[in-house]
Amino acid sequence: MISLSSSIMAVDSTLSSAVGASVSEKDAKALQFIEEMTKNVDSVQERILGEILSRNADTEYLKRFQLNGATDRDTFKSKVPVVTYEDLQPEIQRIANGDKSPILSSHPISEFLTSSGTSAGERKLMPTIHEELNRRQLLYSLLMPVMNLYMPGLDKGKGLYFLFIKAETKTPGGLLARPVLTSYYKSDHFKSRPYDPFNVYTSPNETILCPDSIQSMYAQMLCGLIMREEVLRVGAVFASGLLKAIRFLQVNWKQFAHDIETGTLNPKVTDPSVRECMSKILKPNPELAAFITKECSEENWECIITRIWPNTKYLDVIVTGAMAQYIPTLEYYSGGLPMACTMYASSECYFGLNLKPMCKPSEVSYTIMPNMAYFEFLPHDDSSAQDSSRDALPRLVDLADLKVGKEYELIVTTYAGLCRYRVGDILRVTGFHNAAPQFRFIRRKNVLLSIDSDKTDESELQQAIENASVLLKEFNTSVVEYTSYADTKQIPGHYVIYWELFVKDAVNAPTDEVLSQCCFEMEESLNAVYRQCRVADSIGPLEIRVVKNGTFEELMDYAISRGASINQYKVPRCVSFTPIMELLDSRVVSKHFSPALPHWTPERRC
Ligand code: AMP
C-alpha cells in the first residue's frame, strides 16, 4: 500500500522544527512521512525487498535463481546476479514483442519508459507497471511540503514551468514506449490532479500536452508572459530546458508582443485544443506588449528572467550532474536567483529528494527514499569490487550501511522487475538525515559529453570518429589524435571535437567541404538521443576544430608538468579545464560545422 500514513498526525517534525517553519496539516503529514522513512531506513528496505520478492517469486526471472520462496536479503544477495541493461535485453525484447507471461514482473508490464541512456545507439526500454505511477506521485507530493519550509507564500502565485511531452512509439507487441515524464503528464495523476494552491502552473494542461513541441513552447511562454506578475518561480526539469525557453523568447519576442497587443494567437499555432484554451487567456494588452518589446529589444539580456518575471523567488531546475555547466548562464539570465534542485529520479525508478532545496548547487545532496525500491551500492573506489565479474557477485552495501565520504554506484531492485540493476550513476555520501544517507550526484559512469538529455560515452565518440575518418582516406589523411568538449557558452550548446590530422599529401589535403561532411558523419554515428536533440534544436551543429601538428604533444607536456606520469599518460578524450582549452584553442587552424541535421525518427533503428 503506498500512501502517506494517515495515522501520523503529529504536526511537528524534525524537518519543520529544524527551520522553525509553521506548517499546514497536509505538509506536516508529508514531512512526518519523510521522518518515518528516513528513521527506519533498514527496516523499510527489508520490507520492500520482501514485498518485491514475494510478489515476483513466480516470475521466470527469479525462478531461474532458485530462491525457493526466500525473501531475505542474504539469500537474494547470494543467488541473484548484478546485471546491466544488456544482460536483460533478451527478456526485454520478448516483452516488447508481446510475450505477456510473467517474465520479470508478476504484474503486467503497462508500458516501456524510454531512458535517455542508450544501448547500441538506441534508447533503453525500461519496463514499468501501472502502480509505479503512484510511487512517482508520492515522491512528487513530498517536494512542496519541503520547499514550503524554506520559501513561504508560494500559494500566493503561480509557477512558470516549461513542461513537454515527447514522441511515443509502440513496440512490436503493442506496448507504448515513451519517456517517463510523457507517461506522467499524460496520466490521470497529472491531468486530473486536485487543485492545490501550492502547485498552480501558468501553463494549462492543453499546452503541456500538445505533441508539437514548438507550439507547446510558444503557448507556454505566451501564458508566462501574460501572467508575468503572478509568477513566483520559473522552472523546467533540467537547466538545458529552461535555457531553451529563454532562447525561444529571444527568437520570438516580436511575435509574442504582437499576439499580446492584438489579443490574437499566432496562426502557426494550429493545435485546436491549444487555440481554444489560449482564446480564454489572451486579451489585447498593448501596455504589456510595449513592456515586452522594451525589455526584449535591448541588446543586454542580463537578468531577463527577473525583469520579465519580477516576483520570481527561485528557479526550479536541476543543475547537478551534467547540468552544472549551465549554472553561470542561468545566473546571468536570472541575476543570481537561487536554483532549487528538488529531486533525483530516472526511468528505472524515482529515487529521492533534496531536503534543503534552497542550498547552493554545489552543496545539493539527495536523500533516497527507502520506500521507492530496494537499493544496493557498489563501492566505486574499491577496484576489486568494481572489476569483479558478475559471476563472482561483487560485494554490495545496503542503504543503511554506507559510509560518509565514500563513492558508490547505485543498484536498484524495483517492483517492476529489475533485479540488482546497475543504474550507472556514481554518488558520494555527504551525510545522513536520520538514518538515511544523503548523496551528492557525482557523475554518470562512462559519459563523456552531454548537452541536453544526450549522453555520449567514450566508445560512441571513438566509433563516430572512425566513421568520419573514412572520408579522409582518399585524401591520404588520418586523425592522429582527438579530444572533445561540450561547448555550452551559447544556446543551444554543441559538441566540439579537436582533431590533429596527419596529411601525407599537402596538395591534396581535405577541403572545408570534406571536413564539414566529417562533422555530419559523426553526428549520423552518434546515438538516437543525440540525434533527436539535434532535430529538436536542443543541440547545435557539431564542430571540428583542426589543430596544428604537435598540439597533442604539447598537451601531454602540460599534463606532465602538472605531475602526470609519462608512463600512464593518456590523452583525455574530453576536456574542460580552462588552461587546456586555451592551449587547444590557440592552436586551431580551421573550424568546420555539420551542414545538416542528422537522421532521426521516433521509430527505433533495430
Ligand atoms: P532518464 O532515465 O533518461 O530519466 O535519466 C536518468 C538519469 O538522469 C539518472 O540516472 C541520472 O544520471 C540523471 N539525473 C536524474 N536526476 C538527476 C539529478 N537531480 N541530478 C543529476 N543527474 C540526474
UniProtKB/TrEMBL annotation:
Pfam family membership, one: GH3
Ligase recorded as keyword: yes
InterPro entries: GH3, GH3_C, GH3_M
Residue stretches making up the GH3 middle domain: 366-444
MF annotations from Gene Ontology: acid-amino acid ligase activity
Domain GH3 C-terminal residue range list: 460-577
Keyword Plastid belongs to the record: no
Signal peptide as annotated in the record: none
Keywords: Ligase
GO cellular component: cytoplasm
Domain of life per record: Eukaryota
Family named by the database record: Belongs to the IAA-amido conjugating enzyme family.
Protein name: Putative indole-3-acetic acid-amido synthetase GH3.1
Lineage: Eukaryota, Viridiplantae, Streptophyta, Embryophyta, Tracheophyta
